[in-house]
Amino acid sequence: MSLSRISVTGVRNLHPVTLSPSPRINILYGANGSGKTSLLEAVHLLGLARSFRSTRLQPVIQYEQPACTVFGQVSLAEGNQSNLGISRDRQGEFQIRIDGQNARSAAQLAEALPLQLINPDSFRLLEGAPKIRRQFLDWGVFHVEPRFMPAWQRLQKALRQRNSWLRHGTLDGASQAAWDRELCLASNEIDEYRRAYIQALKPVFERTLADLVELDSLTLSYYRGWDKDRELSEVLSTSLLRDQQIGHTQAGPQRADLRLRSGAHSAADILSRGQQKLVVCALRIAQGHLVNQAKRGQCIYLVDDLPSELDEQHRQALCRLLEDLDCQVFITCVDHEFLRDGWRTDTPVAMFHVEHGCISPTIIGSEA
């Protein structure tokens, strides 16, 4: 799977542009603020209907433009093509088109265009709240386990009902018991899918990390969100009074976490910034391998400011791993000399110079 064509209008400082990227490695270079990251943001919009740079939509839409629009033509593994489109306006409304049909949700985009993002904020995967790691985990489970999404929707509905009852006491006893049963069933199903995914992810992650950096003491474990030795129904029953006092359900898969530790300490407290970046890269590359195994298509990687905080040895090691994924990669950097060479001779590499929001292809070997 790769984007064979992408058209962007109204995204930040980018001039309207249509590109035909390489199916493998694409390097976007230029000065800071030139618009390199904005192109990655446009691809992210196309795959997830949201930005990775801002929770607010207003900064994403170009000044005085009513909306931003991104279209993409996707080359599929079977030789077929798919057409995707996303338009978002200043009121937050969006329209999604997949092969000429209106799509109901952003989940359909995510299914059609799996994206992995590696950027300076990637440290948050280690340093940030458990919610960030749950999102990382569930992205992988979503793409390899078709039954995950219906179970996750059932879980969300049951949680909403239970939390509403905890706050307002509007359910009778029978209804309360029914929603608790549904919550437990959906929770156990979610936990089963997550456990299977982590079991598959760990060895791939460990091999990938070993190719990047030697961190023998690093361990990856999974916390399901409630006591591993007790059934969720028992936990919910014993914590009911406390749940009523705080107005929401404390135990369950909505509290799950991935735990990365170096010896007895949190990895985020021990590892350097460069080591943290390599750990996050290894996690995301390992996810790409699992998606490739589960689907005939492949992830598209968006790598913003790859040279940042990595020395030449680790840059080259990371580039080799990205190359070995045999998927499409978009990489931004200020100085293209860091990344122009070192790829295998049979790997298609395209370079694009970005200046004042204008993107132009560069012939490799030219002085541009």
Q: Can you walk me through this structure?
A:
Strands 2-1-4-5-6-7 form a six-stranded antiparallel β-sheet, with helices on one face. It has a six-stranded mixed β-sheet with strand order 8-12-13-3-14-15, with helices on both faces. The protein is 42% helix and 22% strand. The longest helix is centred in the middle third of the chain and has 40 residues, at 173-212. With 368 residues, the protein is an alpha/beta fold. It has helices spanning 36-48, 106-112, 124-127, 130-144, 148-168, 173-212, 232-238, 240-246, 267-270, 273-294, 312-324, and strands at 2-9, 17-19, 25-29, 67-75, 81-89, 94-98, 101-102, 115-118, 218-223, 257-262, 265-266, 300-303, 328-333, 349-355, 358-362. Strand 12 (300-303), helix 11 and strand 13 (328-333) form a beta-alpha-beta unit. It starts with a strand and ends in a 6-residue tail after the last strand. It folds into two domains: 1-114 and 295-368, Rossmann fold (3-Layer(aba) Sandwich); 123-273, RecF/RecN/SMC, N-terminal domain (Glutathione S-transferase Yfyf (Class Pi), Chain A, domain 2), CATH 1.20.1050.90. Keywords: ATP-binding, Cytoplasm, DNA damage, DNA repair, DNA replication, DNA-binding, Nucleotide-binding, SOS response. GO terms for molecular function: ATP binding; single-stranded DNA binding. The RecF protein is involved in DNA metabolism; it is required for DNA replication and normal SOS inducibility. RecF binds preferentially to single-stranded, linear DNA. It also seems to bind ATP. One of its GO terms (biological process) is SOS response. This is DNA replication and repair protein RecF.
